[in-house]
Amino acid sequence: MAAALGLPVLNGDPSGVPLFEGRMITQFDHRAKGYRSGRGRVAVWKDLAFNDPSKSIQPQWFIPHERVPEKCNDRLQSFRISFCDVASPTNERTLVAALVPPAVLCGHSAPTILFERPAEPWNYPIWVALANSYAMDFVARTKVSLHMTFSILDSLPFPRLARVDLRTAALVTRSLRLSCTGPEMTPFWNRPAGDGWVAATSGPEVIPGVLDKSERLKLRAEIDVLVARDLFELTRDEMDYILGTFPTQQRYQEEKYGEFRSRRLILDAWPSLPRPT
């Protein structure tokens, strides 16, 4: 199975099922880190940038097929959402979620969400968009100490949007462009494409998602505006206050970009991004 997915063999039998850990996931990215060496707290992982040609699913562990519990079969055949279990209000971000493909298992540090049938494909990217917004994270970090649990997620104010709501389309299309950045995600992209949400890809080798870092930051800023302004009806000043409660993220971006770039992009887009009407 690993070979069929084009996965590198970094540890163990390539015929096993890749095991996801929470550190492999960041917002809208299921291939954020690749395992290199070591175990436990001294394990070495490499950050995998979108312009890195080696970016792929690179786990520490492969689970032999005969050891995979039967109860996991449904998940093994499904695209689903995974979020990082380890969380803290002092981290850069607290609620971190991404879509993950079939044919992978997720360990205890990367719990998954699989909606009950008859869930539609668009239900997944809109949940990921909402979860990864600063507005939702602002609420989540008031409830978290060390772990992001299902009970905390259940207490968060996720809006229930209808398919025909224009805000739904605005969020889903942006979330898909951020999430479908590897060949294993192309089949998921083509599911909502069949319903007219996005244009279908011309072939399995075509990556439909956005890989450029600047364009990804812009799309994420637009999602933040749509969630905060058009769903939660916050003011620009209220959003500015929320952004000020993420000092670790601010320091990281100032070191990397010379500014809190997400804050600038969000506040600049606030008056200019058209409201879905």
Largest sheet: 3 strands, mixed
Spatial order of strands in the largest sheet: 4-1-7
For the termini, the CA-CA separation is: 45 Å
Order of helices and strands: HEEEEHEEEEHHHHHHHHH
How large is the count of helical segments? 11
Briefly say what this structure is:
The chain has one domain. The chain is built from eleven helices and eight strands. The chain has helices at residues 2-5, 73-76, 123-131, 134-140, 150-155, 166-179, 186-193, 213-231, 236-243, 247-257, 261-272; strands spanning 17-20, 33-37, 44-47, 61-63, 80-83, 97-100, 105-106, 112-113.
Q: What does this protein look like?
A:
With 277 residues, the chain is α+β, with helices and mostly antiparallel strands. It has one domain (2-272). Helices cover 37% and strands 10% of the residues. The chain has eleven helices and eight strands. The strands form three sheets. The protein has a three-stranded mixed β-sheet with strand order 4-1-7, with no helix packed on it. A three-stranded antiparallel β-sheet has the order 6-5-8, covered by helices on one side. A hairpin with a 6-residue loop joins β2 and β3 (44-47). α3 crosses α6 (166-179) and α8 packs across α11 (261-272). It is globular and about 55 Å long. It starts with a helix and ends in a 5-residue tail after the last helix. Mean pLDDT is 92; it is low at 1-12.
